[in-house]
Structures are given as structure tokens and as C-alpha cells.
Amino acid sequence: MTISTQAPLLLSEVNLTQKVSSTSAQSPLDATVIIPSYQSWDQLQVCLDRLACQTLNSDQFEIIVVNNDPSDPTPDGFRLPANARMLSEAKPGSYAARNRGIDEAKAGLLFFTDSDCQPDPEYLEAGLKMAQAHPEIGRFGGNVVLIPNGDDWTTTELYDVHLGLEQQKWVERGRAVTANLIVRRSVMDHVGRFNDTVLSGGDMEWSDRAQAAGEPILFASDAIVRHPARESLGEHLTKARRIEGARLRRNSQRGAVNYIPPIHKLIPSFKTLKNLLGSPDLTTGQAFKVWGVHYVIRVIKITETLRLLWLRRPDQRK
């Protein structure tokens, strides 16, 4: 995972005047960008502003935004690029929203990203070039570069960089997160849609199905989206609970074994500490602090197992 100190582009730097070419009706679309959104208008606006200044001509791609909270209407002053449209999906969950976008997509190459992501100007062009250079490959995990929320990296943000969202490592395991996933429409039809009954972990479940179906994946290092690192411990704990819930659902067929809390996580991972201490990007103090966050998250996963399976409490969306 690359640590970027580059600040996000300012809204004033985004070219919002890009218009769809008058020849778009005669030109087939090369790409469809699908973005699920849930009560995140400010972040979504930044994402769309980045997509409005792509190096790829605007008549070569479309943007589909799927509002996953129909009761939350588009705010006044919200700007959609000329080649974008807004859909609505009442079924809760980003995967239900993504499936709605897939159904409406017109292009043969689908770019999935999230409303809190900030695509680089070459994002779509690089993804298309990667797909054209590897016609035998149907899945690509695009690069996700984490950025700080302020001038300096906090401990929880550093955790995200070193132990959180590591797209290249996921791709090496045959998986990719939907913050930056590029898929041929033919592969999506072959593997099937996302599991829209889950609120988290659907990207990993879909990736496993694609891997089992014999669909290879490559890392698209130049197709970059930037993602603000999670800046609070609470955000990390919420994510950990969601992921643990998704893991429990995937393992539900294991029966009684699934009800055993992962008590081994009470033992700190000294291998993780060794790796953190060996990172040239961290001071010794930072390494120990990041390791502390890692341990707290391990404990939370135990409590989530108890909460969901033993206390029969519902999953958390946020």
C-alpha cells in the first residue's frame, strides 16, 4: 500500500464545465462507473467532481449513482456531471444498490467505486488500457491510495494504511474491494450479481465466487482512487463489526463450530508488531500505537461473535 502525502484536489480545481459530446449518441460507451450512495452527499459531490475531470472523453463513459436511501432526497445545489444519472434503490445495502446499477449499465466494462472515493484524472483511462492490454482477464483490482484527513497522519489512519485497506494484497489472494473494482460485463453475467442480502463483505463473497468460476484477476496499479483513511477508532470498530458479521454469515454452514468465539484473538499478534516495527514509514512509537489499535479490533471481533450469534442481535449498517 502506497502512503500518499498528496492533498486531495480542491473543488475549485475541478473542471465542472465538461459536457457530453454531441456525437455520444453515435459512439458506444467504453465504461460505466457505478457508485452506491447512502447519506453521503458531500463526499459524493467530491467523487463526481473528480469524475467530471477525467482524461477520458465524457462521451466514452457514463456514471450511475444509486441512492440507497430514497427518503434522503438530493440536496439543493447538488451537481451531477452531464454524463451522470441518479437512480434509487430502496432495498438496504450497497450491494443491492450496485446490482441496480449493473442492471442499468450500458457499457461492457464496469467500474465500481464508493461515494467517499476520489478518482485520479487518469482513473478511467488507465483502467480501460489495462483491460485492452489483457483481453483474457475479466477482473481488475484498481489501486486504492489512502490519504490523511488533515495535515498529519493519526494513529488510526496509520492503522488503515498498514493493516487496513490493502488492495494489492487482496488481489494476490484473488479478491478486490469494491472501492476500486473493474469487471467486464460478461464476467458479471457469468459469475452472477452481488449478494444483496448482506450489508458488508459482499465484495469478498463475490470475489470468491469469481475465483471458483475460473475468472482470473490482475492489479491495475495506475487506475487510482484516493480514499480518506478512517480517522477515528470508532470508525474502525464499526467496520470490524460489519466484517465479522459478514464472516459469520459466510461460515454459517459450519454449524455449531461457528458459535465458538475466536478467543485466540485475545493473544496479541507479535508477528504483526514485528512487521510494524520493521516498516520504514513508522517510528517505534507509532508502530506500538498502531499495534494497540490492532489488538482492540481483535477483541471487538470476539464481542461481535457473541453479540450476533449468542445474543441474536441484528447486524449494524454503520
What's the gist of this structure?
This protein folds into 2 domains: 11-228, Spore Coat Polysaccharide Biosynthesis Protein SpsA, Chain A; 233-310, no CATH class. Helices cover 38% and strands 16% of the residues.
Using only C-alpha atoms, the radius of gyration works out to 20 Å
CATH topology of the largest domain: Spore Coat Polysaccharide Biosynthesis Protein SpsA, Chain A
Using DSSP, what is the number of strands?
8
Strand content: 15-25%
Average pLDDT over all residues: 86
Number of domains: 2
CATH level 1 name of the largest domain: Alpha Beta
Order of helices and strands: EHEEHEEHEHHEHHEHHH
Low-confidence segments, ≥5 residues, pLDDT <50?
Answer: 1-27
Write up this protein.
The chain is an alpha/beta fold and 318 residues long. It has two domains: 11-228, Spore Coat Polysaccharide Biosynthesis Protein SpsA, Chain A (Alpha-Beta Complex), CATH 3.90.550; 233-310, no CATH class. The protein is built from ten helices and eight strands. It has helices spanning 41-51, 94-104, 123-133, 155-164, 167-172, 185-191, 202-212, 233-250, 270-277, 284-310; strands spanning 31-37, 61-67, 84-88, 109-113, 118-119, 139-147, 180-184, 217-228. The protein has an eight-stranded mixed beta sheet with strand order 3-2-1-4-7-6-8-5. Helix 4 crosses helix 10, helix 8 (233-250) packs across helix 10 and helix 9 packs antiparallel against helix 10. It is globular.
